[in-house]
Design brief:
The structure is a homodimer of 203-residue chains. Chain A has helices at 14-30, 39-46, 50-57, 60-74, 84-99, 102-113, 119-132, 134-146, 153-170, 179-190. With 203 residues, the first copy, chain A, is mostly helical. The termini of chain A are far apart. Chain A binds a DNA duplex (30 and 30 nucleotides) through helix 3.
DNA sequence: CCTCCGAAGCAAATATTTGTGCTTACGATG
DNA sequence: CATCGTAAGCACAAATATTTGCTTCGGAGG
């Protein structure tokens, strides 16, 4: 005994490794200790050999992007509430709840951190960002199908998504109560949407 | 000769070094090539020995924070236009113009990148962020002194600053024309401020 | 049950980043 | 004009991150 303990080397399946590494990324990002994020640290926390991480993802940006994509897809359940306001409210409430957790904020931070500087990649990222907002677009589409007149995507970006992101990034807590309603209210009551009653659709 | 060429070693003054390093940070951040930002690269680009950078700033976060603070202070001229709307519009126009340049976007990115993950530092950063918004607070104060009723800071954050930041971060270009007016219009016309005529102050 | 392929683990080499001791230039002060 | 403190530059050392060659496990297909 004491010689090799070959049995101690437990090898995990690719899926397990992937999940463990993703979790380690989120853990480290949301760790209050605030060490800087790098591949050896991630691998160690995941209990995975660092070479496995290098070989699979290549660099930190790719790993972050993969983590973010996977998690966000996993955590975006689309409820159809029957009205535009209800859908937006559900979205806003889920988002606000998310950024109240350190893990949720970490994910948003990871989105930003994984964005490279290059002009070309920046353009690609802008597209990816739009793609990531497909839940919002679906809400708009459903509303249009119902005869409602949803605000344009850019307005939703400015009035609903932007406040959510900036608070996540800078760690500014949203107001305690009524914040989702406030944002949705502003969005619908102000500009191009006939907020009050949903019936006055154009024909 | 040919032995040492001691004369080739030009030493620059601390001020020059500081400026050169700051410029190198911004250059690298906005470089379309998109290499990753680190101290050796910055030092090389600035034509400065990397030890000078390590000794003066210690780490990348501190350097980024210093660069951002210096540049933002340098580039925030406060015009007093005489009205709340005018002041906000001037601020928004300057900001939008800024994020149309790659250097301006780089600065915003640097703000985010220099933010450490730790919970404690996160709280500090939130404060620093507020401090950095003192130009907005001054605008509010002047408006109050005039008898105008400016929106609360949080609302300005959500409706004016957040859209500006998110577009800078994700590289989403603002609409070609009228964007500053649009944002200010929404901000003043909608919520707690009696937008149309400035006279109906509470007493 | 055997063989083969893909991926994880290990160890060691390489590259890169970070830190240190010392020297030297510049400017301030007397 | 001499001297003294500060900060930049250089060379080298230490720490850390990245890459590579090889071995070994586990599952898929025969």
């Amino acid at each position: 005994m004491t010689q090799k303990q070959a049995s101690a080397r437990v090898r995990r399946s690719p899926e397990e490794v992937r999940a463990a590494v993703h979790q380690a990324v989120v853990d480290l990002l949301s760790d209050p200790a605030g060490e800087d994020l790098n591949i050896p640290a991630i691998a160690q926390r995941a209990g995975v050999n660092h070479t496995s991480v290098y070989r699979r993802w290549g660099n930190l940006d790719a790993l972050l992007a993969d983590t973010v994509t996977t998690r966000l897809e996993r955590d975006s359940p689309l409820n159809d509430t029957g009205t535009l306001r209800g859908d937006l409210l559900a979205w806003a409430e889920a988002s606000v709840a998310s950024i109240r957790t350190s893990e949720g904020r970490a994910l948003v931070r990871a989105v930003v951190l994984s964005m490279p500087n290059s002009a070309q990649a920046q353009a690609e990222r802008a597209q990816q960002f739009q793609r990531r907002m497909h839940s919002i677009e679906q809400i708009r589409r459903r509303a249009t199908a119902r005869g409602e007149n949803p605000p344009p995507l850019e307005q939703i970006l400015d009035q609903l998504i932007a406040p959510f992101y900036i608070r996540a990034i800078f760690g500014i807590d949203p107001p305690d109560s009524g914040y989702p309603e406030l944002l949705v209210d502003r969005l619908l009551g102000d500009g191009s949407a006939p907020g009050a009653s949903s019936a006055s659709a154009a024909d």
